[in-house]
Amino acid sequence: IICASAGNHAQGVALAARHLGIDALVVMPAITPEIKVNAVEKLGASVVIHGDDFDTACDRALQMAEETGRIFVHPYDDPDVITGQATIALELFRQNSAPIDYLFIPVGGGGLAAGMALVSKYLHPGIKLVGVEAEESASMKAAFEAGEPVNLEKVGHFAEGVAVKRAGDLTFSICSRLLDEIITVDSDEICAAVQDVYEDTRAIAEPAGALAIAGLKKFFLDRPGCEGNAAAILSGANVNFARLRHIAERAAVGEELEALLGVTIPERPGSFLDFCETVGARGITEFNYRIADKREAHIFVGIALVAAGISMTIFAFQAPSLGRGILKLLFGALTVLVGLAVLAQPGIALAKLTLLLGIYFLADGVMTMIVA
């Protein structure tokens, strides 16, 4: 057999093939984390790395299936695969004695959502099913809007396990009838969900794995009047350890504890101080500076917000005031006078230093007034 996958399907096929004594070949895109590739190989399958995304890897797997005579096992648009994934809903309802009012399901190609929707709506017709997609690869939402599966021009790879350009034909026909809603979440919201899972359970989810958690949070934050029991599917934990640092940094943005800003400021002394005064009483959590030219500098700044849940007001950077320029001029003139007075004394070096400092403040004051 042969399959293509950047997620759980690859490991499922490898495990089933080992159990049945079948030779398995898995085609995986180059974006696949090394931990996933290693897991597939440890289960006994052969791995071929091809292409930069799932769709390219899938095309290669179909080509190899035709060339070698292997049976292609589709990761989502296959009735047997959908039926297998439907058993997750059976497990959920058997293990949960309380009725579930809302069920959040991650969506890539739609196999998991289609399977769980079939079982959920059959056993509990009144349940509200919400599919959750990554904002940068929302192929099922695009299909809902178009009335049929469509090809996205490009997909992001942050949540590579659900990075699919086109929803399945079979999965779309099921999801369009049974899912009540499709919502999308951005990368920062996904990172915040990864942090929530860790803090609540000490489990580390991959971005695609925490997708439904992020959707659950967003859904109820946007609908404060909604009440009831909610469940979300945690669908994967295949994340490279080195990637956790990036996820942790973005989580603060997703929780609205930090804002990251790219700002252009005048290339002159005192500009960053002016910026900090404009920001107000907020801590600077990160600062990177890069000179652009003699007139402008580009800074990347992390700003701590007062508390989670507050709305961040985007402000315009205010140019230095005329009054500040006048104060700098006065201070510069005073410093020059002090330097001239010191010239009459033996300490010539100190006098020169004082004069240079005074001239600097005079020039800075003139520039500030010009900008103002």
TrEMBL record:
Cited InterPro entries: Ser/Thr_Dehydratase, TD_ACT-like, TD_ACT-like_sf, Thr_deHydtase_biosynth, TrpB-like_PALP, TrpB-like_PALP_sf
Family annotation (Gene3D superfamilies): 3.40.50.1100, Biosynthetic Threonine Deaminase, Domain 3
Protein name in the entry: threonine ammonia-lyase
Transmembrane regions listed in the UniProt entry: 297-317, 329-348, 354-371
PROSITE patterns with a match to the protein in the record: ACT_LIKE (PS51672)
Assigned protein family: Belongs to the serine/threonine dehydratase family.
Keyword terms: Amino-acid biosynthesis, Branched-chain amino acid biosynthesis, Isoleucine biosynthesis, Lyase, Membrane, Pyridoxal phosphate, Repeat, Transmembrane, Transmembrane helix
